[in-house]
Amino acid sequence: MITHDLLSLPGIRHGFFTREGGVSEGLFASLNCGFGSGDDSERVAENRARVTGRLGVTSERLVTCYQIHSADVVAVETPWRRESAPRADGMVTTKPGIALGVLTADCAPVLLADPEARVVGACHAGWRGALSGIVESTIAEMTRRGARLERIAVAVGPCIGKRSYEVGPEFPAPFLTANPSDADLFKSASRTGHFLFDLTGYVVRRLARLGLRAVAAIDGDTVAEERRFFSYRRACLRGERDYGRLISAIALES
Q1: Are the C-beta atoms of residues 202 and 230 closer than 8 Å to each other?
Q2: 236: which residues sit within 8 A by CB, 6+ positions away?
Q3: Residues 154, 110: contact at Cβ < 8 Å?
Q4: What is the pLDDT of residues 159-212, one digit of tens each?
Q5: CATH topology classification for 5-161+198-252
Q6: How high is the mean pLDDT of the chain?
Q7: What region does 56 belong to: left with phi over 0, alpha with psi -120 to 50, or beta?
Q8: Helix, strand or coil for residue 132?
Q9: Are 230 and 19 within 8 A, CB to CB?
Q10: Average pLDDT of 205-220?
């Protein structure tokens, strides 16, 4: 479990979990937390129980969404059953003892907290969600519940690194249309007309543009660091049939 000092706050529990420390095997070894994978569901449940044990909550109070790469955010009042998970990519709660979980395998997990207002948030920021405004939507939902921009602390977890994220010639256009100053986040790749994209830098920049004062990113490349992380892109490059899911989560202490 990786933590960051910005979120190591009174009354807040959080963690960006690696793939280590679980019971799954093979492609899913070992802390696979994605029921949407082809892993055995009992093993996934045990892995999630290990996560919630580290966070100090019970398994049934860990909530995750059916993630769709959107800017949609839900307010969590009570935990839901997995079968009825909302289609969204961000969550916010003021309820103690509920852990907001984000599943990733190259996308950026983002955890947020205002300890004074007792509001926490979590969102899944792949390039589509980040471009469409998932971090802004999550923060807006937090401020509706009493959070203030100058108090919100944010940590962006490990994701696909800029040296691993090769994109095609059509990829930069929507980003540069939205904000031409983001051109520096694209570097030429070895293949002609292709680029390397800095997803972490893009998410951090969007957060900074909101005026947040406490924003940090945790080092780590999910593609390059196979021992520590699952990666969708790595699995695709190898022609593997499936891949595990990492989990990052945050909760207010009861």
Answers
A1: no
A2: none
A3: yes
A4: 999 999 999 999 999 999 999 999 999 999 999 999 999 999 999 999 999 999
A5: CNF1/YfiH-like putative cysteine hydrolases (3.60.140)
A6: 98
A7: left
A8: helix
A9: yes
A10: 96
